[in-house]
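Deviations from the work plan: none for this task. Representative record:
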Amino acid sequence: MPNRYNGAIMATRTRRSGSQLSPDQIIEAVLRIAERGGSDAFTVRRLGEELGADPTAIYRHFRDKDELLLSVADRAFGEAIDGIPAGLGWKDRLRALAAGSLRVALKYPVVVSMTASRTTRREREFLIVEFILECVHEAGLEGGEAALLYRSFGDALLAFIGQTAAFRLFDPDVQAGDLAAWAREYRTLDPARFPHITRLSDELAAVDEQEIFDVRVEAMVSEIERRAALTSRRRAAPAPEEPSEQA
Amino acid sequence: MPNRYNGAIMATRTRRSGSQLSPDQIIEAVLRIAERGGSDAFTVRRLGEELGADPTAIYRHFRDKDELLLSVADRAFGEAIDGIPAGLGWKDRLRALAAGSLRVALKYPVVVSMTASRTTRREREFLIVEFILECVHEAGLEGGEAALLYRSFGDALLAFIGQTAAFRLFDPDVQAGDLAAWAREYRTLDPARFPHITRLSDELAAVDEQEIFDVRVEAMVSEIERRAALTSRRRAAPAPEEPSEQA
DNA sequence: CCGGAGAGCGCAACACCGTTGACAACAGTG
DNA sequence: CACTGTTGTCAACGGTGTTGCGCTCTCCGG
């Protein structure tokens, strides 16, 4: 029998006249699915269901699933940068970008976890790159040093949200098991072999995810600031000893 | 019932002469495959081929592919910590751990990319946790602050090597495309809309991956140092203003 | 010394995945 | 009206992880 997703037979037939599917409609369907579902949410067949169309209809609008994914990701990342208020200093702008990115990762975990080591090369990616470069520039970095710290910050942020998103995709059982490990298994290790773990087992179990996020963001912000201070100092007093900023 | 908590029973019971497969043999076969192959290297059927056995034979020794993966990952991460020389300061020990982890990620990309947001809860993971905690302790952090910075460093490291490994797994075409984007597409953007990108396009294309790695590791090391300095200062002179480390 | 028990493996099959090629129905154009 | 190109449907292909069944062969108790 034709079309086993039955509710939609007549609809597809009649609406067949115009093109019922558009790239935007498909992208939005993916975002809807991603927002609802777990790790297996974004499959071609499920997307067909969501659209009330044959799964393979997508291939009329996107070369393959990967191209669709990148388009979806670009749309999603747009949300990360949207709500950033103007008039903030470069540090707070970077912090706001990080917070927005994390928000997106928690909203569309499937999409973010599949994209976090990719380059979309689309409109909104350029916007974010420009955004970070502007911050780095305002911090006082130039040329190769600015490029390096942009890449470091951007990659670090992407890695973090990708990691977070991927974790949220595991079965609740696996997630719970991983989290409980801190409270259960680490506490019962041999204190002779693992003195620090056993001593800190309570504190290890109590660490807050949000705090980890803040530490990692702050580490990158401070690193940018530190390197900016170094270059400006070098510019002011040319060629002293490379100041060894540690013990 | 098959023997799912591998190793232990086999060891106590006299070893069956007829059984050709052991958990260790399987783990090593996976490592061999992972070292050779790309993203599709670690499949059950390929593993069967490598072992010269039926693919499903694995399920007599591991509950499912995931349990096998975690065992393999634990073995692999052992290599990260093995070659770290004694007698280094905490900073250099953390740097050595990071370098070793990156080495492992490049050696077994499939394994690392599949594990980077997981917890193996196995022997060698505990060793690495203890290792980092010892460094953080030596840096001067205690209690909840030590736990927090351990988690931040560990997760950041895991995220980075996972991201790197995942990238190496893409088709060479995709990899080349992503890398070339910096040199090609970013250069042709509209300078009015993207002034920083176009101004720095040459430097962006020239950024070295190893430098990014160093920046990100150094950022975390510095953050640990910074927070350690704050707590010790707080301990020396209790409850002043939170010292804002200059704008 | 023998026979049952059960571990280890092979095989076929299942449900799912992304993707392709052939075909049908429609829109727009001459 | 006929033609052409676009878009949706459908069946099918090769891939994945996993399971149930049956065979073999080792081990252990009698």
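Residues 1-18 of chain A have pLDDT under 50 and may be disordered.
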